[in-house]
Amino acid sequence: MVSLCSFISYYWEEEKRMNYFPDEVLEHVFDFVTSSRDRNALSQVCKSWYRIESSSRQKVFIGNCYAISPERVIERFPALKSIALKGKPHFADFNLVPHEWGGFVYPWIEAFARNRVGLEELRLKRMVVSDDSLELLSRSFANFKSLVLVSCEGFTTDGLAAIAANCRCLRELDLQENEVEDHRGHWLSCFHDSHTSLVSLNFACLKGDINLGVLERLVARSPNLRSLRLNRAVPFDTLQKILMQSPNLVDLGVGSYVHDPDSETYDKLVTAIEKCKSVRSLSGFLDVAPHCLPAFHSICPNLTSLNLSYAPGIQGGELTKLIRHCRKLQRLWILDCIGDKGLEVVASTCKDLQELRVFPSDPYIGHAAVTEEGLVAISSGCPKLHSILYFCQQMTNAALITVAKNCPNFIRFRLCILDPTKPDAVTQQPLDEGFGAIVHSCRGLRRLSLTGLLTDQVFLYIGMYAEQLEMLSIAFAGDSDKGMQYVLNGCKRLRKLEIRDSPFGNGALLMDVGKYEAMRSLWMSSCEVTLGGCKTLAKKMPRLNVEIMNENEQTDFIFDDAQKVDKMYLYRTLAGQRKDAPDFVWTL
Amino acid sequence: MEGCSKITEACPQLLDLIPREREWLVKRADERSSEEKKLELRLGPPGEEWSLRENAKNADDRERDESLLSLGYFSNGNQHTRKFSSPENLQPGSVWFNQQLSQQAKATPFLQFPSKTVTTRQSLPVMAKESSQPCCTKVVVDLQQSAEKKAFSPPAPANTAVVPSSSQKRTAPGSVVGWPPIRSSRKNLASSSSSKPVTDSQNESPNKKVASEKPVETCKKGMFVKINMDGVPIGRKVDLTAYDSYEKLSTVVDELFRGLLTAQRDSSAGGIMSEQEEEKAFMGVLDGSGEYTLVYEDNEGDRMLVGDVPWHMFVSMVKRLRVLKSSEVSALSLGSSKQGKESTDEMRRKNFAAKILF
């Protein structure tokens, strides 16, 4: 699409020639352009394209909610209907960001309501969502259709009740891995009897009980329901009843799956499942009796996505039996109890596999059940693999070199060795060469996370070869400022850089201050940057917010520029310093 | 838009700077265009331009390239004319080559060198060991060298670990905040799910089973509430019915978190807390005089200071507990008279200082 734009803009050099195309025609053409990046490109061709594109864009993506004010977004995109917002830095997922840091959605909802935006879809990630926000949201937008909350917090089931009760057009309520305070109220009953438009309902992350009868009736009156993910409180027999009602489900998240395989209910479930010929995605099994799993074998051959990463109860033989039926799998999320042998089964069965995530089942014992062998097996059996997240016990350069050869198509490569500074398990060398092979071979690599014993060398390779890299996560790696300098200098497409516990200091931070305006954000914690370095940076770059977080409350800190900064988060912004920062966050 | 032209300038040169013997380079080489192949480094008999030139160059080039590095400018003009100085420091190659040497004996299947590099490979052992000899068969990127000089200790024999001393400081101990990088919802999975097959409990509905695992119970037996501590990623649970007073609760909190706290401090401060210091941390949890203060969340969702109401009333209202740093408590302005005077002063000083910064 971008090349089309450049062609057209080249051909029609003078702006007045644009008038040959009425606005409506251009708008119609732009309708076919849906991705945010492409539309951003369109808007930069010339002024009239900017104007037309901005006035017609309905779907907006804001990668950092503090980069711009809601008023400015509304002003630029008057046709706004669907917005995605991200709040906290990624490391907040791992408790590295203090609890009250920010990322409140309320000001956005309030601004949209005040300006009568015709909001229909809201997608939030890592934001603080209060019950008040949900209440306001539910009352302010008559056509509101879709709410997706990922890794958010701050709300309770009361807020969900407001959404259920007031959003009469709601089609989608998707709660993924949120921290929700469950008041065990009857939020599900708040859906009106006349509410029949539900297409997607995911409440797997809720911890409390729900009224099962209400759930069954809701499902029964939702003929368009295609995606349903249940929480732990939904038992086996309810699942059976629901599946009888919804044979057209495409995405199913099983809640509690504990029952007696010899019972009548089990037989009924088998029958119900056999009717669900449309199911392509399966997840859940939060509580599971493994020998009831064969009931699902009939739909396994159709599955393209399987998520068993919350099901530590499925192990060993039962797990591999299940996987052997899943020949069409494209996405697989599992726990490391599958073991290297289990991964070999995956490699021989799932030839279409594109995305694999292997999570640690017992992270604090520090003993993952998979090693480099599993990864090599997968890479040789699954040539279409492009995304991997792999928590393992150990890794070797040889394995990484092999993986790089087998799978040159990686877009996302995230490796996490549970002991973060562990060297090559065989040679005791740093893992520089292995990761070097990965970035060299995978020309399209966009996201990379590294662990293991790593020196500045690996960053040299990254800077040299990872041309498409957009996001890089570094922990306990590198030897000197040079490491970070190689990356900042070499990775021209870098947007997000997050670093923890690595010896990078002011020399690296200040090497190319202009770079940060071309990036979304930089996170550095437990590194060598000092307060003085951060102040210098902030002074040079007024359009960056440089936030320092010091939870140790050392008041001497303020006066000592040589003091090392515990946590620094900087991001480009057009909105200036934010006004909702808590006491422990200082914007320089 | 973002200096795209610079990217295209930089890329072709950078491709070829790593020596071709790198095993993982082999595949890429075959895919390149013929023009690129002309430009690329090749190992061969003397007579090749760069190998002669390389012997002549040494320190000058290195210094120049180092200064280029410090300017942060990677891409340069003609690759033939620069960067290939005498490889006195062979560490960059040696890491990978050492590994290759050690694994040659194993003859692992992934090692597949094209035949033309075989001769050069045989000379590698020489290079690795006799690093002072200038070598015409190995080309090393100067940028690497300057990095390697600082990164690596003097050349080590093939199989010993080459561990830069600076990395030892960063050895991650058992309990590091935010490690491993997984979401809270994925922690404690194995312990929190009732994963055992239930064969003879068909009468027991799964609902009841789930209910017994919930953190808050209204029945009188075994009332477990969650207790978290600031800075410690893993929480604990306490059974409030096992105690009958606040003092006992305070002791329990101390026991639960002392170990974790010591481990945290060990990893961050690199020291070991003396017993006195440990005790000090948890003394005064209830009266605000110590480093930490105990607060709880009641049935209305409000955060309250522990100790105001009679014990039995507390037990009926508490939903979860939290151990906060006392200084943070004062910042929350609970307005309790138990706040030490010094914490208010601290807060005032910090606010004043914060104003200076703006």
From TrEMBL, chain B:
Q: Which InterPro entries match?
A: AUX/IAA_dom, AUX_IAA, PB1-like
Subcellular location as annotated: Nucleus
The organism encoding this protein is Hevea brasiliensis (Para rubber tree)
Q: Where is the composition biased (Basic and acidic residues)?
A: 28-41, 50-64
Q: Which PROSITE patterns match?
A: PB1 (PS51745)
GO terms classed as biological process: auxin-activated signaling pathway; regulation of DNA-templated transcription
Quaternary arrangement and interactors, per the entry?
Homodimers and heterodimers.
Protein name per Swiss-Prot or TrEMBL: Auxin-responsive protein
Instruction: Tell me the function of this protein.
Output: Aux/IAA proteins are short-lived transcriptional factors that function as repressors of early auxin response genes at low auxin concentrations. Repression is thought to result from the interaction with auxin response factors (ARFs), proteins that bind to the auxin-responsive promoter element (AuxRE). Formation of heterodimers with ARF proteins may alter their ability to modulate early auxin response genes expression.
Which key words are in the record?
Auxin signaling pathway, Nucleus, Repressor, Transcription, Transcription regulation
